[in-house]
Amino acid sequence: MGNVCCTPKEVKYSALNLQQLLAGSKQQVSDRPEVRATIREFSPKVVDVSIDPREFCLEGALARIDLELIGSNQEIMRLLGAELALKLLDKVDITGGRKTVTNELAPTVPGTQQKGNISLIEVKEKPQQRTDRVGSGKGQWDKGQTRKTVEMSATVSMSRKLGGQDVHVSVHSLTADTASQQLPVTSKELQDFVKVAISKAATDVVLEQMSLM
Fold first, then answer.
1. Nearest to 86, CA basis, from 96, 95, 76
2. Buried-most residue among 59, 120, 142, 163 (CB within 10 A)?
3. Residue 209: which pLDDT band, with cuts at 50, 70 and 90?
4. 8 A C-beta contact, residue 169 and residue 158
């Protein structure tokens, strides 16, 4: 078929089963910064194909994953990368309890510093919690600890060799999704988080299915 390959000896399973069992799976894929992944959707290109959980491969599947990033502001910025962070995060720079707001977020007022065509207003950070959004995710700034949820879409392939333990996953493309656009993600760390999340979840599923064979 080109999109699906399998070499079953005794058919017990289908790609549709895998799709249903992976949806909603949660995995912690990093400790510091803490990164939690939730698979919202896993869609093989072909769902009515039979596979053997002992040995199979699926190519070109679409996965939608929420990555929750928990760490310092600097750690989150490093994970996302400067270019992606500028597009995803609010246009503010949190430093030492103050934040610099561009004139896209606030009007020019008397006493405002001017820097080129951009107005910069320094305001003290309020002690109460502040909620930020990335895509449709939510988070909060609290004493330097940041929690951001980024919605992602990935095109992946997965396979398992006969006699092997883990399901191998390759990420072919990855985007961060907002309400208006999909932003390409080139960060190897973020790609690895997605790869590990799907691999762990798929491995758990096929091992459980094998125990029932």
1. 76
2. 59
3. confident
4. yes
For residue 42 the two structure tokens come to 């896993």
Q: Which amino acid is at 9?
A: K
Beta carbons of 62 and 75 less than 8 angstroms apart: no
* Amino acid of residue 100: T
DSSP conformation class of 97: T
Q: How many angstroms separate the CA atoms of 187 and 175, rounded?
A: 10
CA distance 40 to 151: 9
| Token output for 94 | 């949190």
**C-beta of residue 201 within 8 angstroms of C-beta of residue 39:** yes
**Does residue 11 or residue 34 have the better pLDDT?**
34
Contact (CB, 8 A) for 63 and 154: yes
Q: Which of 41, 44, 49, 42 is nearest to 60 (CA)?
A: 44
Three-state secondary structure of the chain: CCCEEECCCCCCEEHHHHHHHHCCCEEEEEECCEEEEEEEEEECCCCCCEEECCEEEEEEEEEEEEEEEEEEHHHHHHHHCHHHHHHHCCCEEEECCEEEECCCCCCCCCCCEEECCEEEEEEECCCCCEEEEECCEEEEEECCEEEEEEEEEEEEEEEECCCCCCCEEEEEEEEEECCCCEEECCCHHHHHHHHHHHHHHHHHHHHHHHHCC
For residues 121-143, average pLDDT: 45
Whole-prediction pTM: 0.70
Please answer whether residues 121 and 98 qualify as being in contact, where contact means their C-beta atoms are separated by less than 8 angstroms.
Answer: no
